[in-house]
């Protein structure tokens, strides 16, 4: 469930450039001096990109939420799996990791935050220990009561140590403290419409470089710039999209949203709801099925999780062609080069 195109890079830059001398991480705990274990390719995996992919088009590694396979996987530019969660022994007694979506990194780069919509919970993974280190919600018990979530999406950790959660089916956005108390709540449970003080099924709430939030409402197809106090500054109706997915902000300030449909679409638009670019083919290799996530990379390529086609790809907007792809189009699986309904991707921060 920010955008500026690359949320994680923005958050890390803000964290390192704030001028503050306190040595505290997003968790509010002094960062460990223990280094994150190096992520190296799995033995025997020499890269399994789809045919026609060019590994030279990107220098980034990517973290993909492989939702129907109940896992996160990290890929290098060659398509080699360099990290996976959970592995045998990673989960503690009674812990589960079902249906992860929308992964994001903490500002210190040492934790991954992930949402589990069907389970009604958000979890944090410590990359040093490869263990779940924090969570909010009651696993397997979605709800709207104290400490409960219903269909959470797009959770992101802030520099101050809080976690912003789009509590989608409760039609609210929460800012949650590390002790699981709620610092702020925007929207009203049971009032799922775009309006003053209400939100229509928010499915992402991502921090912008300005310090504001970019909130996408599925009901009514709205994108809003909001302050951290919940004040809507710039509401924009998403053009030509009925069921939007994740929204992000592009380098030129426009917004990029997916249309969850078959065939699916990518739509870029400005604050006046004018379409500046779109892709929605009905035949050929770029036909999408329920694309859930898209963001612009610094290079200008667009990273997309094409959920219904079980793939994650990089698209060159100038040519309209896919230049890099992991996953077999329209074929789900768990083996090398395969995904099963991926939903959300993050750029792996430098040094991991």
Structure explained in plain terms:
By secondary structure, this protein is mostly beta strands. It has one domain (7-21, 47-89, 96-347): YVTN repeat-like/Quinoprotein amine dehydrogenase (Methylamine Dehydrogenase, Chain H), CATH 2.130.10. It has one helix at residues 7-16, and strands at 62-66, 71-75, 81-85, 101-105, 111-116, 121-126, 131-137, 152-157, 163-167, 172-176, 182-187, 202-207, 213-217, 222-226, 232-237, 244-249, 255-259, 265-269, 275-279, 291-296, 302-306, 311-316, 321-326, 342-347. The strands form 6 sheets. Strands 3-2-1-24 form a 4-stranded antiparallel beta sheet. The longest helix has 10 residues, at 7-16. The protein is globular and about 50 Å long. The model is unreliable at 1-34 (pLDDT under 50).
Order of helices and strands: HEEEEEEEEEEEEEEEEEEEEEEEE
Tell me the radius of gyration: 19 Å
- The number of E-state strands comes to 24
Q: How far is the first residue's CA from the last residue's CA?
A: 23 Å
Features:
4-stranded antiparallel beta sheet, 352 residues, single chain, 1 helix, disordered N terminus, Methylamine Dehydrogenase, Chain H, mainly beta
Strand and helix map with partners:
Elements: H1 7-16, E1 62-66, E2 71-75, E3 81-85, E4 101-105, E5 111-116, E6 121-126, E7 131-137, E8 152-157, E9 163-167, E10 172-176, E11 182-187, E12 202-207, E13 213-217, E14 222-226, E15 232-237, E16 244-249, E17 255-259, E18 265-269, E19 275-279, E20 291-296, E21 302-306, E22 311-316, E23 321-326, E24 342-347
Antiparallel strand pairs: 1-2, 1-24, 2-3, 4-5, 5-6, 6-7, 8-9, 9-10, 10-11, 12-13, 13-14, 14-15, 16-17, 17-18, 18-19, 20-21, 21-22, 22-23
């Amino acid at each position: 469930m920010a955008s500026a195109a690359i949320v994680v890079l923005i958050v890390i830059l803000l964290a390192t450039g704030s001028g503050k001398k306190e040595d505290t991480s997003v968790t509010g705990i002094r960062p460990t001096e223990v280094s994150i274990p190096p992520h190296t390719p799995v033995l025997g995996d020499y890269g399994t990109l789809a045919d026609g992919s060019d590994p030279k088009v990107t220098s980034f590694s990517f973290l993909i939420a492989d939702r129907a396979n109940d896992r996160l996987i990290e890929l290098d530019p060659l398509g080699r799996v360099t990290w996976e969660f959970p592995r045998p022994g990673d989960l503690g007694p009674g812990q589960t990791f079902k249906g992860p979506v929308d992964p994001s990194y903490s500002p210190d780069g040492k934790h991954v935050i992930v949402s589990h919509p069907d389970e009604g919970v958000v979890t944090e993974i410590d990359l040093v220990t490869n263990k779940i280190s924090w969570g909010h919600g009651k696993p397997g018990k979605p709800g709207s009561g104290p400490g409960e979530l219903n269909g959470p999406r797009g959770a992101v950790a802030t520099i101050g140590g809080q976690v912003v959660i789009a509590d989608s089916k409760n039609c609210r956005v929460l800012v949650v403290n590390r002790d699981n108390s709620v610092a702020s709540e925007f929207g009203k449970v049971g009032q799922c419409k775009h309006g003053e003080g209400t939100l229509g099924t928010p499915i992402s709430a991502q921090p912008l470089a300005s310090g504001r939030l970019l909130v996408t409402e599925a009901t009514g197809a709205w994108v809003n710039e909001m302050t951290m106090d919940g004040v809507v500054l710039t509401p924009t109706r998403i053009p030509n999209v009925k069921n939007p997915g994740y929204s992000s902000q592009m380098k030129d300030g426009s917004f990029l949203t997916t249309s969850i449909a078959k065939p699916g679409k990518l739509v870029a638009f400005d604050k006046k709801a004018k379409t500046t670019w779109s892709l929605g083919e009905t035949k050929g290799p770029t036909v999408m099925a329920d694309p859930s996530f898209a963001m612009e990379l610094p290079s200008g390529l667009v990273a997309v999780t094409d959920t219904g086609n079980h793939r994650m790809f990089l698209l060159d907007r100038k040519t309209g062609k896919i230049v890099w792809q992991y996953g077999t189009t329209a074929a789900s699986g768990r083996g090398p080069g395969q995904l099963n309904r991926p939903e959300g991707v993050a750029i792996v921060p430098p040094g991991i």
